[in-house]
Amino acid sequence: MELSAAVMKQWALRINEKMQEHKDKLSELDQAIGDGDHGHNMARGFQEAANKVNDSSYDDIGTMYKDIASTLISKVGGASGPLYGTAFLKAANAWKGRDVLDSEAFTEGIEAAVGGIETRGKASFGDKTMLDVWIPVRDEMKERGVDTEQANKTAAKEAEATIDRVAKKGRASYLGERSKGHMDPGAFSSQLVFEALAEVYKEGAS
Amino acid sequence: MELSAAVMKQWALRINEKMQEHKDKLSELDQAIGDGDHGHNMARGFQEAANKVNDSSYDDIGTMYKDIASTLISKVGGASGPLYGTAFLKAANAWKGRDVLDSEAFTEGIEAAVGGIETRGKASFGDKTMLDVWIPVRDEMKERGVDTEQANKTAAKEAEATIDRVAKKGRASYLGERSKGHMDPGAFSSQLVFEALAEVYKEGAS
Amino acid sequence: MKKLINGVDQIVSEMVEGLVAAHPDKLRAIENTNVIVRADAPVQGKVALISGGGSGHEPAHAGYVGEGLLDAAVSGEVFTSPTPDQVLEAIKAVDSGAGVLLIVKNYSGDVMNFDMAADLAEAEDITVKQVVIRDDVAISNPDDRRGVAGTTLVHMIAGAAAAEGKSLDEVEAIAQGVADNVRSMGVSLAPCTVPASGKPGFTLEENEMEIGTGIHGEQGVERRELMQADAVTEELVQHVLDDMHLNDGSEVALMINGQGATPLMELYIVARKAIQLLKDRGIHVKKTFVGEYMTSLEMTGCSVTILNLDEERKRLLLSGRE
Amino acid sequence: MKKLINGVDQIVSEMVEGLVAAHPDKLRAIENTNVIVRADAPVQGKVALISGGGSGHEPAHAGYVGEGLLDAAVSGEVFTSPTPDQVLEAIKAVDSGAGVLLIVKNYSGDVMNFDMAADLAEAEDITVKQVVIRDDVAISNPDDRRGVAGTTLVHMIAGAAAAEGKSLDEVEAIAQGVADNVRSMGVSLAPCTVPASGKPGFTLEENEMEIGTGIHGEQGVERRELMQADAVTEELVQHVLDDMHLNDGSEVALMINGQGATPLMELYIVARKAIQLLKDRGIHVKKTFVGEYMTSLEMTGCSVTILNLDEERKRLLLSGRE
Ligand SMILES: Nc1ncnc2c1ncn2[C@@H]1O[C@H](COP(=O)(O)OP(=O)(O)O)[C@@H](O)[C@H]1O
Ligand SMILES: Nc1ncnc2c1ncn2[C@@H]1O[C@H](COP(=O)(O)OP(=O)(O)O)[C@@H](O)[C@H]1O
Ligand SMILES: [Mg+2]
Ligand SMILES: [Mg+2]
Ligand SMILES: [Mg+2]
Ligand SMILES: [Mg+2]
């Protein structure tokens, strides 16, 4: 398994496409248990990140993802801005100086990303946040190496699993038991991140 | 034709009953071309007037109607308070010292009432106000003497006739052409005044 | 109807109780009335100012009672002029001998009830003058125009004049000067519900608005297709300016008044465009008010008010209270 | 969705333009940001106060920028915390060397974004402190509580302290004292519509209300049958008092805050009952605020805030700006 700078660029662009496509659904999920802006936040932020990536050329994947992270941090706001921003910033640090990522290197980035989300947001697995998706994906990668198809499946399954949970962090937590029965919007946007990864890897490999 | 103090008392009480009964309709008419409070204004004011009349005993019709007028002036507010209040105050002046009213005396009161409304509100016949009812009733009384049944019929017909008019005075005038197609609420409450008169006269005579 | 009230009949009296309970150092109510006066009324030697009308326009009118503004406010039932006896109570409570100015909005009901009160006061040897506000250019005939948000600028400027110790004639002339030079026009996107009726005053489709609405929840002079904020603002400002004689270099005060339910955010978007439009015409905005000054319960919409300033009005407005 | 706007994407920037255009003597915007600062910032020798958060809470936060209050306000998108770089711009614009206090409401987004900004500022050698407001007793765990209307009392009291020339540590301690002693609880009768989504945040039947709502148009902690104003007030006040340690003789400030579409008339009816309830318990209300201080767009409803006053807080609040 190898991910070139070109594929990593495609990943960022594809994430953006997915966020645009699912913007309304993401906001609807957020409206049910939050304030209804997650789709707009994601769409706004990743659009800017995609523009940034398109306007520049990168050999260094670290530099590319640092730019993506800074763009997210400065354009998204809300809870998801610092969280996605920090995630990609930490990953970028791990990917610094590389123009291609093998399974181990990619996993290091994901590990760093999850660490960043945890430190920033102080949530744990099961709190019905984006971490409910990121943590199992990371665990699987650490154990078996990167399998993007598998990561995609796990992300989808784990996003689904947030439906039955009671939110412990973020706005949805204010609803207490009433947060049950709805998928966490950040979990779904995270699922889209790994769905994008599987797609671009497959296209890049073929 | 003669109206005793007892019948004149009944008139005031019957007006109140009619205003209570048609309160919602009066407010609905006002909602269409005004601010929707005419029924509440009339119901509030005439209820207080009825209480006043019930709590006192009068030989002098003038004194009785002066009390009714003061009550209306101090309890109704809006446009209709001063107008109905002034109308009955002027009539009360004309009826001062009398314990029974013949056709001529009653007509003098109605004439004075109409004069009061005209002076206070500066409206004319055809402006789509209560005067559209009061003026024809007065004219008929002056011409042919008091016929309460006829006054009732004329009032109903003239209230109906306000529907097609464009309001020139009061809140409804702000709507211009849009005021067409709705009966003037003050015209309808005035119709009720004469409907009450016909009823109590008939009952008193029988 | 969803309202934080206890019963339709207690609304005004409970509001008055709340006002006085919240600001006991500033306000006092006259027993058995809905009249609110300055706690220190009558103020010796000062001309007293009274405003009032139906309730439902809060902060008007009781919110303007205080130093440098009104001496009393008379609150009728919701959207119903108060009765002459209540106005008389207010007059008697605030007159210090220097005379009383009644600030009256040009509605049949207000004009008649305040007029009757003035007659009653004159009979008790109190000198009373009246100024009638007719700022709503939605009505074409100037004599028939309603008094709307511009009334609050009369409170401020005449209030400042009275606080300076000016005589009744002087304060009246200044108030009349404001009344003659102020114009307003409103737009509504959604109606309000008068508590006594329990139903919205009218219905509007998702893409409709009413242009030229007054302050009593009535429909406006025309129903129109909903436009963007800038276009709406242009329409209102143009309508108002068409009725004024302003030149390049004229100085004005501008008020963007919310009708009750429109977020301040939107009022500032309207203010932004209104200020641009005036600037484009060379008109100098010396003071801008953005907020709720004269509401129509929870109506959605706003009005634009422009006041032509002369030196005296400018001085009084900029030095006075809001 | 019926709003006086030009487009969903321009709302915040046009509001900021409007604010500055309306009050050019008082306010200034930092170019290419939605940061509003005092026109005379940085004020030499004075500790600077910054508040902010998503937009849609107007007059919070930009409406509190001015002498004796905030030095800057940072506006995010509607109901979305502003980004760290915008907060950093604000910090840089207002720091005079005396240090900067960030007033942050306890929402994940606000906390994280302001925290990142504080880190960035420290890296530029600016001394930054933060006070996090958690006044919403609707949430039972004190650590998780949201910052709501009580935040504006921090603006006022910490603002007065900074204006007196107190040091950053002193101002921080005073602000923290307010934060520790203020409690709020809200109720909503109707939702609001976030412009970007275009649909109301939730739906309520004619006889339903949400108890324990925050300030972002979310549902509350519980849906209940609509009650009369007095009963609602009793519930809110009791909930707030249960979380405070007030005695017979305690002195407090009271705030009845409208969520956006509730007429001032109704807020005064609520104020009346709240004051009665406090009086019954021997609690002295030294100052009452009734109006819109921290809104949720055009949401219908209100919140009750009670602040326990010590001598210093009382002095600063009564002498300071509102
Ligand atoms: N403390 C946290 N830790 C991890 N994720 C969080 C945290 N708080 C919120 N989130 C995630 O952020 C998402 C909401 O993001 P968004 O709607 O964009 O921001 P906001 O909540 O400020 O409106 C939630 O669905 C959740 O997945
Ligand atoms: N100037 C006037 N002259 C005669 N009648 C008038 C005048 N103005 C209003 N009216 C009458 O008053 C009625 C409205 O009364 P009401 O609704 O109680 O008062 P308001 O208009 O103050 O709400 C109108 O239907 C009309 O008949
Ligand atoms: Mg959200
Ligand atoms: Mg009416
Ligand atoms: Mg009325
Ligand atoms: Mg948000």
TrEMBL record, chains A, B:
Give GO terms for biological process.
glycerol catabolic process
Q: Its GO CC terms?
A: cytosol
- Tell me what reaction this enzyme catalyses: dihydroxyacetone + phosphoenolpyruvate = dihydroxyacetone phosphate + pyruvate
Instruction: Give the multimer and partner information.
Output: Homodimer. The dihydroxyacetone kinase complex is composed of a homodimer of DhaM, a homodimer of DhaK and the subunit DhaL.
Encoding gene per record? dhaK2
Respond yes or no to whether keyword Kinase is given for this record. Answer: yes
Cross-referenced InterPro entries, in alphabetical order? DhaK_L_YcgS, DhaL_dom, DhaL_dom_sf, Dihydroxyacetone_Kinase
Q: Which UniProt keywords apply?
A: Glycerol metabolism, Kinase, Transferase
One Pfam family, short name: Dak2
Q: What is this protein called?
A: phosphoenolpyruvate--glycerone phosphotransferase
EC number per UniProt: 2.7.1.121
Which EC class is this protein assigned?
A: transferase
The DhaL domain is annotated at: 6-199
Pathway where this protein functions: Polyol metabolism; glycerol degradation
GO molecular function terms noted in the UniProt entry? glycerone kinase activity; phosphoenolpyruvate-glycerone phosphotransferase activity
Annotated membrane-spanning segments are none
Establish whether keyword Kinase is in the entry.
yes
NCBIfam families the record matches: dha_L_ycgS
Functional summary from the UniProt entry: ADP-binding subunit of the dihydroxyacetone kinase, which is responsible for the phosphoenolpyruvate (PEP)-dependent phosphorylation of dihydroxyacetone. DhaL-ADP is converted to DhaL-ATP via a phosphoryl group transfer from DhaM and transmits it to dihydroxyacetone binds to DhaK.
Automatic annotation (TrEMBL), chains C, D:
Instruction: Please indicate if the UniProt record lists Ligase as a keyword.
Output: no
Any Gene Ontology biological process: glycerol catabolic process
Give GO cellular component annotations, separated by semicolons.
cytosol
Q: Supply the SUPFAM superfamilies for this chain.
A: DAK1/DegV-like
User: What are the GO MF terms of this UniProt record?
Assistant: ATP binding; glycerone kinase activity
Sorted keywords for this record are:
ATP-binding, Kinase, Nucleotide-binding, Transferase
Q: Where is the DhaK domain?
A: 7-322
Report the NCBIfam families cross-referenced here.
dhaK1
Q: Which PANTHER family match?
A: TRIOKINASE/FMN CYCLASE, TRIOKINASE_FMN CYCLASE
* Protein's recorded name: Dihydroxyacetone kinase subunit DhaK
The protein's organism comes out as Marinococcus halophilus
Q: What is the lineage of its organism?
A: Bacteria, Bacillati, Bacillota, Bacilli, Bacillales
